Every structure is written in C-alpha cells, then in structure tokens.
Amino acid sequence: MRESGLQFLLPYMRAYRGLLMLGTLYALIGAGAQAFSPTLLGWGVDALTRGVDNRTLALYALGLVGLAAVLATFRYLLRMLTGEIAAGVSYRMSQDLFHRLLLFDRETRQQYGTGDLLSRATSDFIYIWRFYSAGFQMSIHALFLLLIGCGLMAVTSPALAGLVVVLLLISVAVQVRLAGVLEHSFVRVQQELARLSGFVQEHLNAARMLTAYAQEQPVGAAFRAANQQYVQRNLTFVLQSGAISPLSSLVVRMAATVIVLVGGLMIIGSQLTVGQYVQFIVYLALLNSATRQITGAYERLQQGSAAAGRIGEVLHRWPKIIDTPTASAPKLSGHIRFEDVGVWAAEQDRWVLRHIDLDVPAGSTLGIVGPTGSGKSMLISLLGRIHDPDEGRILLDGHDLRSLKLSALREAVVYVPQESLLFSMPLRGNIALGKPDVPDPTIYGAMERARLTNDLPQLPKGLDSIVGERGATLSGGQKQRAALARALVLDPKVLILDDALASVDMKTAAEIIAGLRQGVSQRMSAVEHADQIIVLDEGRIVERGNHSALMALGGQYTEMYQREIQQAAEVLTDGDH
C-alpha cells in the first residue's frame, strides 16, 4: 500500500514544480540562517573569553537577531507556499475522486459502500493535506538544517561530528524500518472509521423505521461496539507511534552525553575551544528539533501515503461501461430495437434475460410488466447502458448502443426511477437540474405534462420554494411528478419510467402516460394505454400485444391487471371507512 500510495500521491505535485523549487529555496535560506546561528554564537563566546569591546559584542548580537529574522521570514514564506500547494493538490484530487464516483456503476459503488466512500472523500483528505502542508514544510527545512548543521560541525571537529552523524543514521534507519508497521496500523484505523461512517449513514437513513420498531437500544449498543473497535484500532496506532517517535530524542541525548564527555576531554587537551564546545551543545538542540520534525514529517508521510492509497484505489477503478475509441454521437429520433438480447448473472448462475426481441418505433410507448424478479429493471437498465447485454445487441435508430457516446446516449435516453431524489434547493433548480439556464416557459411546460402545475399554489413561493432534503416538503406523488418534469425538461427521445408513477393516482398516471410522446413504463395502470405491452417471466417475453389483446388472451397480464384493480378498489373502500 505504501508504494502505491506514494506513486499516486507524488504525481499531483508535478503541476506545482515551480512552487516546489521556490519552497526549496525558502527552506534552504531559512535552514542556513538557523544552522549558522550556533557557529556565530560560538565565535562570540570565544571572543568573550579573549576579551572584546562593546561594539564587537553588539555586532555579534545583531548578527544573531538578523539570522533569527531571516529564519522567521522564510519559514513564514515556506508555510504560505506549502499551504497553497496543499490546497491545490487537495482540490484537484477531490475533483478527480468526485468525478470518478459519479461515473461508477451501481455494482462498484455497492462493493465499497456509501460510508466507506464518504470516509475516503473526507477524513483521508485531511491526512493528504497534512502531508503536503506541514509534512513537506517540516521535512525539507529539517533536512537542510541537518545537512548544513552536520557540515558546520564537521568543519569545527570532524571526530565529534562523525559520532553524531553515526547515531543519527542509526535512528533514521530504525524509524524507516518501523514505518511499514505504522502505515499498516493507520490503514486499519481508516478502515474502521469507514465502517463506522457506513453504520451511522445507514441507520440515520432508517431512523424512522428504527423508532417504529423500538430498536433504539439495540442499535445504540451496536454503535458502541463499532465505536469501541475504532477506538481500539486508533489506540493501537497511537501506542505504536508513541513508541517510535521518542527514538530521535533518545539518540540526540546519547549524542549529547558523548559530546559532554569527549568535548570536555578535548577542551582539557586544548583541541577544542569553549566557544566550539558551546557551539556543539547548541547544535545538538537544533538537531534534536530537526530530527523530531523529520519524525513528525515521516509519520505524516505514512498517513498521507495510506490515505492516498485508499483514494488511489478508487481512482484506479474505471467504470465497466465506457466509450469505445470509435464511439459517435449521431442525431437520434428514438427507434429502439432489441435483437436476441440476453444478460447472464454470474453471481446467481442464471440468465436474467434471454432471447429478448423487441421493436419500439419512435413516438410510441412500451409497457413492461411481470412478477418480481422477472427481469423488468434489468431490461430497462440496458437502454441507458447501465448494463451491457452478454448476447445479442440493442439498436437505437440502427446504431448499436455500444457504438454511441455515453453522453449522446444519455441525453437521448432519460431514466426516471421509482424513488425520486430531490435536492435541498428551490423546486425550480430541481426541475432544471439538467439545464440550469432553461427558461421558465419550458419549466412550466414540463410541469404541465407531468401534471404538477396544479400543485404550485400549495407551495409558499411557487417555483422558488425550497423542497427540503430529499424532497421532504413534498408528498410522494409530488416528488415523482417533479422528477418526471425534470426529465421532460431535457426533451429526451426515449423516456424510461421505472415504476416512477407508483405514488401517483391511477387517473393522473394514465393522463401523464397518454401525453408522453415516447416512453417505457412498468406500472399496470400506466401501461394500459401503451401502444405495445410485454409480459416478462423468468427473463423471457411470455406475452405481448396491446391492452385489449392481452386482456382477451386471459393470461398472466389479465391476472396481474385484475389483481391491481382489485387492490385499488380495496384501498378506496378502506378509505371510505
């Protein structure tokens, strides 16, 4: 995971190579100023031991203040620059992730789960931000500080500098060796967070049902167990990180002990001045700070690498259905033809659809009915290339759907599901979602065809009324008709209604279907006036014809139609009572 995470993370920095070079220069100047301070301090101490006038002493003091000012200025510039890089990289990466999620097919989204994808799109980006901002800034400054500091120490006393460098190399080698343990532990933390997010998202959506079945206590207990698992994983990571982090400080303290002992002996032997001794002691404090910064940056690197690996895993998953290299976008009118179409479900080890032959001329309506699991939804999903057939082909105006650009196909074929999804925005924005600049007359025309205009007086601000999250302020029938109006605004060549009028009364549903130019629907009362009706059973067409012909046949269609009419009559009778 670490390698793949870094391989995915670093390419996003290519667009910021100029800023990275500038940041490297800032870090070099700042680190150089900080690293030269102990040397200047050592010169000042040696000058004091020899005797110095006030003017020379003031110059040493001003020099130290000037170096501190240079350090502060360039550390600030580096922080601002790395913040800009972090913001740009996070923005570009999040845009790529969101766009890829929109392209995913349903099966791929279900493999991850909503909570897992939300976790990757939120908390993982926090660690990527930390890597690019604080991690990069800390590591590059500290690295230059170590290199320059060790170089200046070597000029003063190669023997003492060699001891310090050997101890620091041992510390770095051990931390690098243990880095894989930290990253693996952090990935498990993020996985537990994803599971926890999924649990919360799923149960919040079902809050009303849980209350109705008095499941608050069992769900609360399950949440506590999931939360405890997340806490345990997090605690394990913190303990492992806490065990590794002090290594750098321990090494510096060991080096300090060596310098105190060896340096003292060298002063006695006149091999080292007091100023140089002080210089080494101050360098140890700086190197201690630098190694802590590198340790922190390395930890952020592991976290950023793990987080980027999780995001990269999603970004490297391409949708199963994409444009072919020769895909085209011809002008379409809406003539649909199925030629011996079949769909094989490997997980169920059966044919969901088999030997489907259909011809739906442009401007006509098709009704698809059948028992649950007969293949209705699968057949509908083939029209928008949510799935591709495993055998046979589907033609739109003589073009195989697989030869059309997806953008052109989905402009011509618009799908309205049974569960209408509306956003927390004005009704106007929900209806004009596909065409934000559509004029009001077009919106009103679509609403008229969807039989929604009569409901406008019930809304306090008409088209400007906020419908609430998921259309909470509208009834079920109003939400479905609003979703239908949204589809009609796009003026599709083929309109697919996947039981999209289930919450609309039978009379209004029939009026809507009758007013549509071209459509595919499932509901019995809605398909009654369709030009052509097919009955599916176990993935095959067992009956076809118009309503009158199928009723005269007295087969499955007749039984299903009479059953729905009887259920509707029972609902009306119960309402009267």
Give structural notes:
By secondary structure, this protein is α/β, with parallel strands linked by helices. It folds into two domains: 2-315, ABC transporter transmembrane region fold (Up-down Bundle); 336-576, Rossmann fold (3-Layer(aba) Sandwich), CATH 3.40.50. Helix content is 65%, strand content 10%. It contains 20 helices and ten strands. The strands form two sheets. Strands 6-7-8-3-9-10 form a six-stranded mixed sheet, sandwiched between helices. Strands 2-1-4-5 form a four-stranded antiparallel sheet, covered by helices on one side. Strand 9 and strand 10 (540-545) form a beta hairpin. The two termini are 65 Å apart.
| Rg, nearest Å | 35 Å
Element order: H for helix, E for strand? HHHHHHHHHHHEEEHEEHEHHHEHEHEEHH
- What distance lies between the first and last C-alpha atoms, to the nearest angstrom? 65 Å
What is the averaged pLDDT score? 80
CATH class designation of the largest domain: Mainly Alpha
Biggest pleated-sheet summary: 6 strands, mixed
Which parts are unreliable, with pLDDT below 50 for 5 consecutive residues or more?
none
